[in-house]
Amino acid sequence: MARAAVRGRLTWTAARLAAVRDETASARTLTFAVPDWPGHLPGQHVDVRLTAEDGYVAERSYSLASAEGVELTIQRVPDGEVSPYLADVLEVGDEIELRGPVGGWFVWRGGTGPVVLVGGGSGIVPLMAMVRAHRAAGGAAPFHLLYSVRTPRDVYYAAELAEPRPGLEVTLLYTREAPPGHARPPGRIGPDDLAGLARPADCFVCGPTGFVEATSTLLVDLGHDPRRIRTERFGPTGA
User: Do 148 and 119 meet the contact criterion of CB atoms below 8 Å apart?
Assistant: First the structure.
């Protein structure tokens, strides 16, 4: 299973949209039916290919949000070629092409040691796959997820993250607007937000480049082993 998940599919295959769920005003989760899906490791991604009637082809990579099966959470990117179609046009029953799973470095392979997940914006997606895999495995490893978003309206998987889960601690950090009564004032992630994290721990940081670089630097400054910090950067056309 693990070997198949790392190698993934080397060819394109048809994926049929089976279900849709809105996450925010600009993002939705798509669940696909993919024949003979080989399984994947939490943190991996797939390549998505769209072909227009005139033959024009556009490809993008999107992280898998699920512990099993193919589930993608797509944030609409203004003027994007792929995300507006996936977020606004694709309907249940429609088919796209995908290839994967892809990637073998930014993945959680299980274990019982502490894990720190830090996500910025849509960078929560591969981390959510890890959270779900952790839950499916029984939550033996202490997990702490820190999720930085602009406002409460921008939180992906809000209801699921609000549910108490053994072995999982969730901290929401708001950068522009916090809900009433929230103890932390709005602002960018800082050393105080990371100071109480378990150490040593395996750290996974995902989000925009500036967020990832700043967070990784803070973790190292606070004594985390840089060899145990894995990062994934999302560009403007990422998931």
Answer: yes
Q: Judge contact between 78 and 237, C-beta under 8 A.
A: no
Q: 127: Cβ–Cβ under 8 A, 6 or more apart, which residues?
A: 43, 117, 118, 119, 145, 147, 204, 206
* Per-residue pLDDT reduced to its tens digit, 27-71: 999 999 999 999 999 999 999 999 988 889 999 999 999 999 999
Burial of 221 (0-12, 13-18, 19+ CB in 10 A): exposed
Q: Is the pTM of this model over 0.85?
A: yes
In whole angstroms, give the CA distance from residue 87 to residue 65.
15
**Phi, psi (degrees; rounded to nearest 5) at 126:** -65, -25
Question: Which CATH number among 3.40.50.80, 1.20.1250.20, 3.90.1150.10, 3.50.50.60 corresponds to the domain 115-233?
Answer: 3.40.50.80
